[in-house]
Structure formats: C-alpha cells, structure tokens
C-alpha cells in the first residue's frame, strides 16, 4: 500500500524544515507530502532528487482559531494514495516510521497511532543528525513503549492522539473524517477516534516512531481556554462523555469555570488573564 504524509501547519517553519529533512532520510519514502497551511500560505522547496512530490493548500479559520479538523480533512481530500500518515508539523519521522505504518495497514486496515518520542530543548538545532536525536528522545509516560514495528491492538479509543497516526483513505471516509464543528484546539481527535469505534474501525498502537520537537507548552492550556471549553461542550452533547477532564478540572481549580460532570455542567465564570497564560507557559525538559 502506497502512503502519503499529511501535515497541517501554522507558523513553525523550522519545524516544517526539520520534518522535510526527516522525510528525506526515510528508508521507504512517502509517495506524496501534503501540507495544509492554517490561515497562511505555505511553500516548501524540495531538492531536485526528492523521491516524493509535494502538494500545498490553505484553509482559513475564524480569526486566530486553529481550524485543525477542516485542515486535516482538506489534506485527506488532496491525498492520492490508498494509505495516509497524519504527522503533526512538530514531528520528525524516524527512517523506519513510514515502513512500519505501511506494514500495520497491510496487516489490519485500522486506525494506528504511532510512537511519538519527545526531544529536549535544543536537540533539533540546525545541523542535527538522526543518530543524535534518536539517543536523546524519551517516551511519553502516558503512552505504551513499543519495539520497532510492534503492534498493540487496543479497545481504549480515548487514548488516541492525532500527533502521528495512519489510516487508509477508505477507512478515513468510513469514519466520516474529522468533525469540523470542533472549532480550534481540543477534542477533535478524541471525537475522530470515537467515530472510528462507532464505524467499526479497529484501533491500536504501532512502533512507528516520530521525534517530537521541543516547544513551550501551557500547563494547563490556558492559551486555548475558550476553544477547549467550547469543544468539550460540543463533545459531551455528541457522546454524553466529558473529554479533556484533567484540563477542565484544572480550569475549575483556577475558578475560571464551573465544572460538575455529575450534573453535566460546564460554564465559564471568568476568562484567563494574559498574565495567567504567561505564568502557565513552561519549558519542561522533556517537552511535554
């Protein structure tokens, strides 16, 4: 099964360049690299001997919102191969990532989440070498540790993250794509996984490794406060389950929301201040 790599991006030009550098080192290159810019045009200069083509497009969201669902759907519509690997712009593919995703899709045409390993600050500086970042990367404590190419089927669809995953184009269409009523950051990937379960698409983890480039994060993600609350309400209306519970509880502890999952209540009490957002930003050593 031929596969394409699908990437959505806003800003992060250095991350995108590093992803290209990784793709050019793939043992099995993709047939195509599809890049969709969110609220911005995007362009990439491929070397003349690149073993794959590139296709770029743009999607416009509302103001500063990240139209994640819409961008991923557009990328899928532009994909010309039977297999699709969605890879966030933060991720550098390992040389074997695409081959392991291909193998997983051939074995079981399902939804396969890859193995993202996290890089410390400065690991992907200019001139980085693949052998060096392989040594520096660490596993995320909430995700399974797998051997290269190892498959681990799972019934826990709620553990799906859209950072690095593969699905066939037929499977994607069977799921119905990402629900673009989720506007901005948060919940759209769990919704996609729940829709996959509803559609009878098998889910699992595969040892297809990508290296996540370090960047600052907000803990809790106050920089996406309104989108998370809005999308949590939308998710609960659709599935009768509250997603992103730890984030909502953290917002409640800051007295920004009233969150009572037993009473099915989530209400904004106060917006986070700019100072609160700044204080929540952190540069953790492992980048998560």
Automatic annotation (TrEMBL):
SUPFAM superfamilies: Nucleotide-diphospho-sugar transferases (SSF53448)
Keyword Glycosyltransferase applies: yes
Family annotation (Gene3D superfamilies): Spore Coat Polysaccharide Biosynthesis Protein SpsA, Chain A (3.90.550.10)
Pfam families for the chain: Glyco_transf_7C
Keywords of this entry: Glycosyltransferase, Transferase
Domain spans labelled Galactosyltransferase C-terminal: 153-204
InterPro entries tied to this protein: Galactosyl_T_C (IPR027791), Nucleotide-diphossugar_trans (IPR029044)
Organism domain of life: Bacteria
Assigned protein family: Belongs to the glycosyltransferase 2 family.
Protein name: Glycosyltransferase, GT2 family
Source organism: Neorhodopirellula lusitana
Lineage: Bacteria, Pseudomonadati, Planctomycetota, Planctomycetia, Pirellulales
């Amino acid at each position: 099964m031929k596969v394409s790599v699908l990437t959505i991006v806003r800003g992060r030009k250095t991350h995108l360049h590093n992803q290209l550098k990784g793709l050019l080192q793939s043992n099995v290159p993709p047939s195509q690299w599809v890049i969709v810019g969110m609220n911005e045009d995007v362009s990439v200069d491929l070397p003349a001997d690149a073993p794959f083509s590139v296709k770029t497009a743009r999607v416009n969201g509302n103001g500063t919102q990240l139209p994640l669902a819409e961008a991923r759907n557009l990328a899928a519509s532009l994909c010309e191969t039977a297999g699709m690997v969605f890879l966030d712009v933060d991720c550098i593919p390992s040389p074997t990532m695409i081959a392991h995703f291909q193998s997983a899709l051939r074995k079981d045409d399902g939804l396969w989440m890859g193995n993202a390993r996290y890089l410390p600050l400065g690991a992907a500086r200019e001139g980085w070498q693949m052998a060096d970042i392989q040594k520096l990367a660490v596993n995320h404590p909430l995700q399974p540790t797998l051997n290269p190419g190892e498959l681990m089927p799972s019934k826990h669809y709620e553990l799906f993250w859209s950072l690095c995953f593969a699905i066939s184009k037929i499977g994607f269409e069977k799921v119905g794509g990402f629900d673009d009523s989720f506007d901005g950051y948060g919940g759209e990937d769990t919704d996609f996984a729940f829709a996959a379960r509803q559609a009878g698409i098998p889910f699992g983890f595969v040892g297809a490794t990508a290296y996540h480039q370090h960047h600052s994060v907000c803990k809790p993600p106050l920089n996406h406060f309104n989108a998370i609350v809005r999308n949590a309400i939308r998710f609960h209306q659709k599935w009768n389950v509250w997603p992103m519970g730890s984030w909502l509880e953290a917002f409640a502890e800051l007295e920004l929301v009233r969150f009572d999952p037993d009473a099915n209540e989530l209400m904004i009490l106060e917006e986070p201040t700019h100072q609160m957002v700044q204080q929540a930003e952190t540069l953790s050593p492992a980048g998560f």
